[in-house]
Amino acid sequence: MHKQVKSTCCYCGVGCGLLIETDKDRIVGVRGDPEHPANLGRLCTKGASLHLTARPDYRLLHPELRRQRQLPRQRVGWEQALDHAAERFAEIIAAHGPDSVAFYISGQLLTEDYYVFNKLAKGLIGTNNVDTNSRLCMSSAVAGYKQTLGADAPPCCYEDIAVTDCLLIAGANPAVAHPIVFRRIEDARAANPGLRIIVIDPRRSESAAIADLHLALKPGTDIALYNGLLHVLLGEDLVDREYIAAHTEGFAALEQTVAAFPPAVVAEICALAEAEIIQAARWFGRSAAALSLYCQGLNQSSHGTHNNAALIHLHLATGQIGRPGAGPFSLTGQPNAMGGREVGGLANLLSAHRDLANPEHRAEVARLWGLPSVPAQPGKAAVELFAALKRGEIKAVWIACTNPAQSLPDQGTVRAALQAADFVVLQEAFANTDTAAYADLMLPATTWGEKEGTVTNSERCITHITPAVSRPGEARADWEIVVDFARRLGARLAQPLTGQLFPYASPEAIFNEHRESTRGRDLDITGLSYALLDSAGPQQWPFPEGASSGRRRLYADGVFPTPSGRARFVAVEHRPTAESTDDTHSISLLSGRLRDQWHGMSRTGTVARLFNLDDEPLLSMHPADLRQRGLVSGDVAHVGNARGQLHVRVKPDAGLLRGRAWLPMHWGSQFMNSAGVNALTLSACDPFSQQPELKHAAVAVARADLP
Ligand code: SF4
């Protein structure tokens, strides 16, 4: 009998619970945890293969340092590594100021790791230059919720899928990206013959294949579509005037906006049929409970925030929120994107959903941390952070648990930035990422199965996880690395701190400080502790002191966390994608995920069986578009634009309309002769969320006659 330790899957934001099986301090198996509310024992192919990734050959096991760029890194001890890092950061800060350094972290870190990174940058150093790869997946959802509902809080729970009558899946493909959520959708379909499923996606995805209605809209036309749906709801008297009057504000202005979006106009903008738009609106408006699930297709857009707001409007206008089976439910891409948001681990946020732009919030955080102040100057969000690195405004960057040399758009710029930096630190578990080539200092971190802390999944559910096995080599927990560095840096700064800013001896001490910072906030977790999470199991926030359980759904009382207590309609206008196709670059390139791979494949790329379904990145295009270019299935195509190029085999896909192509996002330089799809994407960002438009680029596709 193997020893079993409860944990969670480290891939997607569903946050499935699992049991790690160990033998002689080695991970030998995983099983779904039947007691975890996210998955009730189920796992997808990725989660069920996690034990196969627990191997040392891809791991970074010792600190490595190079003092000159042209030299290879050499193994060093932790003392030397962290002293060197502290000296370099202190020198750069002394010479160029606190905003000359930056931290780029990850939605795969635990909440406690995130908390200390945030405190290191904003508290100790005095810069808000701390951002995260969650900027690439969730920041438009954050801004969309805040603009409309007043707080970054998904109001729904997974159980809503079982009790909804109309499921609108928008810009998401849970069949491959959130498979255990998709199992719930399949169960709901089997149990409720009246359930209507509408999928909005420019491509006929695996999720669209089970839809009653698939709206294959033109990329980037989401706002026009949602405005058009609201236009139909108004015209057919399917809005809830009582709810609008009692619980919202701003509807009159939006009504004027959507008057310009009748179905005929929207059909033209979105390349859809009028009848499809009317049908979708009727199903949504006439259902007893309508639920939306949405993700990167909405978020990764140069108008992602308003994509989110326009969808949320449908729920507010029909009163489809705060009830079982109803509400706008943003799915998170990464396992702890939510936790990072909770501790304010982005350049524009502060702890416990506080806003950097709010002086009272800054004062509250300064008080909590025992500091005179925290800086007001906004930090640089991901794309701008690397642009500033390239310009030389930022001199040193500390990257943790993420791979910007693959995952950020416009890789030409990002790689030039990493090359130009004075000092690059990479805190990582894996040695096989594209970013490793640019690191002057590599610090080995522990990873899945080796860490203690908390994670929050898409439905606001917090799980406490503990290590199943010992750390390999000299790897250290992420929070420990940060705290050790912070103490060394603190002693070297021009004005060393007198108080103890990093007194932690365990992740629990960090959790307890974070917990206190949430008191009275929308995400109040003052009733939670590691002990309670262990004895009662995972819990949803809010969970204030004195509560006996977390809250399944938010806004049941129709009161929203805005100054007026009312949810807000935002006047949202249709705007096209940042980059349009033209005669030279005539193909709209879309990107997405495959079922068996995760992000840049540093983990899934080590498991042979995860290549059984898809063993290389294939460019999907309509058969007629392939024929027009003299391409047949399996031929190699050249895909390019002014930013970059790549060569990939093609695959016919009649589920794509002509003029569109789709490429999986997972392959980077470690696996192909290019930076992958992000060699081609552009750095245009949403003005509110600063999330880049990763979902669309204009490219030319031609036959490649490779030698
Ligand atoms: Fe892991 Fe997501 Fe699969 Fe669950 S659905 S096992 S969290 S990858």
Automatic annotation (TrEMBL):
> Could you tell me the EC number(s) of this protein?
1.7.99.4
Q: Which GO terms describe its biological process?
A: cellular respiration; nitrate assimilation
Domain 4Fe-4S Mo/W bis-MGD-type residue range list: 2-58
What Gene Ontology terms describe what this protein does at the molecular function level? 4 iron, 4 sulfur cluster binding; metal ion binding; molybdopterin cofactor binding; oxidoreductase activity
Keyword Ligase in record: no
Q: What cofactor does this protein call for?
A: Mo-bis(molybdopterin guanine dinucleotide); [4Fe-4S] cluster
- GO CC annotation terms, alphabetical: membrane; oxidoreductase complex
Top-tier EC class: oxidoreductase
* Keywords of this entry: 4Fe-4S, Iron, Iron-sulfur, Metal-binding, Molybdenum, Nitrate assimilation, Oxidoreductase
Which family does the similarity line name?
Belongs to the prokaryotic molybdopterin-containing oxidoreductase family. NasA/NapA/NarB subfamily.
Protein's recorded name = Nitrate reductase
Gene that encodes the chain: narB
